[in-house]
Design brief:
This protein is of the alpha+beta class. The chain has twelve helices and eight strands. It has a five-stranded mixed sheet with strand order 4-5-8-6-7, with helices on one face. The chain has a three-stranded antiparallel sheet with strand order 1-2-3. Strand 6 (416-422) and strand 7 (425-431) form a beta hairpin. It is rod-shaped and about 245 Å long. The two termini are 114 Å apart.
């Protein structure tokens, strides 16, 4: 029994020794196995991750290829639209050229009318000067004629008086020599005067009665005294002879005067007609201008109050009787501030005031096209949004081309054209947000996010998006 026990003990010892040897040799192998299993598990996980990434990459590649194909198609459509836009621009340029020609023709016609008006004014001044000269001549002629008539009447009275005195004197028959001498004196005058003087002398001789003197009266008469009286009478008669040429001159001057008065009346009537036409034109211009002014002023007040959320604006004639000579005063009152004129406003306030006036003018007389260069540069975020929404909603049937770097301005655009520069080459990117949303069924927020992403990248490369 003891031997069996000892053998069993030896067997146990040997088993223990074998186990120890096995454990000594298997320990590193187990550790290595665990390490390999761990590495295998990690590699399997990494492999699964790579497979997932590969699958995702393949899906992304497929999506990118589809997006690229769509972009190529969209680019082709955009190029076609650009061609159509170019055609429309060419047509608009033709229309603009025609409008410009009409405007230039109207300006030229206006200049001609102004020149004609100036000529008429000059002619009216000349006519007034001639009229005054004719008036002065008329007065001079009137005074001269009055003096001539007065002088003539005096001479006629003297002639009548002397004839009466001669009729009361009896004379012997006058010999032919005296008649010849008188005839020679008369011949020195003009032919017309001679004829009239001859008729007058003949009339005098016919009406002259030589009285018959008594013997006593004849005794007191002497030949010398009679000859002396006769010579004296002849001398006085020659001095008293009327100048019939002055009467003819007066008649001629009177005819000229009446002709000039008729011309003056004709020219004065034409002047009055032109002045009346000018007055009516000025009145019509003032009425039309005032009608437009009242509409623009009322709309300006409304627009400025809406875009400034409580401000006020006013247009006022500097001279209410003649607004064309002095002009119009434009004053605004920004929200919660006092009234100011344009030169005392800040940059943003000037921008809002100017845009309000432009929109008021557009309301009165719409224009088909506006080009605005960074009108939002001096505005804050709120005012940029107000102006952008007004342009978007209120200005229908009008095209606005706006150069802007503010996203809350160009996010509302119907068309975007990004301008950027790479490698010293300027390029452009056209983009149609509405067409993009319609094709890819993207919500508005996603579209705005896409616009922001693309335009931000382009802006970093000196992009200036233009709203159309």
């Amino acid at each position: 029994m003891s031997e069996m026990d000892s053998l069993q003990d030896k067997v146990k010892d040997l088993d223990n020794l074998i186990n120890e040897k096995i454990n000594e040799r298997m320990g590193p192998l187990k550790k290595r196995r665990k390490t390999l299993e761990k590495n295998l598990k990690e590699n399997q996980t990494h492999l699964n991750q790579l497979v997932s990434e590969k699958t995702a990459a393949e899906l992304n590649l497929k999506k990118v290829e589809e997006a690229l194909a769509n972009n190529m198609k969209s680019q082709q459509e955009t190029e076609q639209e650009m061609e159509e836009i170019k055609k429309q621009i060419a047509e608009l340029e033709i229309v603009a050229k025609e409008i410009t020609e009409k405007y230039e023709n109207a300006q030229e016609e206006c200049h001609k009318k102004e020149q004609e008006l100036n000529d008429l004014r000059t002619r009216v001044r000349e006519i007034d000067a001639k009229f005054n000269a004719i008036k002065n001549s008329e007065l001079d002629l009137k005074l001269e004629s009055e003096e001539k008539f007065k002088f003539l009447n005096e001479k006629r009275e003297k002639i009548a008086r002397y004839l009466a005195e001669l009729e009361s004197i009896k004379l012997d028959p006058i010999d032919e020599d005296e008649d010849d001498q008188q005839q020679m004196e008369i011949d020195d005058q003009t032919p017309e005067t001679n004829v009239k003087s001859s008729e007058q002398e003949k009339s005098k001789k016919e009406h002259m009665i030589i009285p018959i003197l008594s013997d006593e009266e004849l005794e007191h008469l002497s030949v010398d005294m009679i000859e002396k009286n006769i010579k004296s009478f002849h001398h006085e008669r020659q001095n008293l002879s009327p100048n019939f040429g002055a009467i003819e001159t007066f008649r001629k001057n009177r005819r000229d005067y009446l002709s000039k008065v008729a011309d003056l009346d004709d020219i004065t009537a034409k002047r009055d007609l032109y002045m009346e036409h000018l007055r009516e034109t000025k009145d019509r211009r003032f009425k039309e201008f005032k009608t437009g002014y009242l509409i623009i002023a009322r709309k300006l007040k409304e627009l400025y109050r809406s875009i400034t959320l409580g401000g006020d604006a006013d247009l006022e004639f500097i001279d209410s009787l003649d607004p064309f000579s002095e002009g119009i005063n434009y004053a605004v009152r920004p929200n919660k501030k006092t009234w100011k004129i344009n030169i005392h406003l800040s940059g943003g306030e000037k921008t809002l005031a100017s845009l309000a006036l432009i929109f008021a003018l557009h309301y009165y007389k719409p224009s088909p096209l506006y080009i605005m260069d960074e009108i939002d540069a001096a505005l804050d975020f709120k005012n940029v949004s107000i102006i952008a929404n007004y342009i978007k909603k209120r200005t229908r049937n009008t095209q606005f081309l706006i150069i802007s770097l503010r996203n809350n301005m160009y996010e509302l655009a119907d068309r975007l054209i990004g301008i950027y520069k790479t490698f010293n080459i300027t390029k452009s990117i056209p983009f149609d947000p509405i067409e993009f949303d319609r094709k890819f069924d993207v919500k508005n927020s996603c579209t705005q996010s896409t616009i922001n992403t693309q335009t931000t990248t382009a802006t970093q490369q000196s992009q200036q998006p233009m709203e159309n």
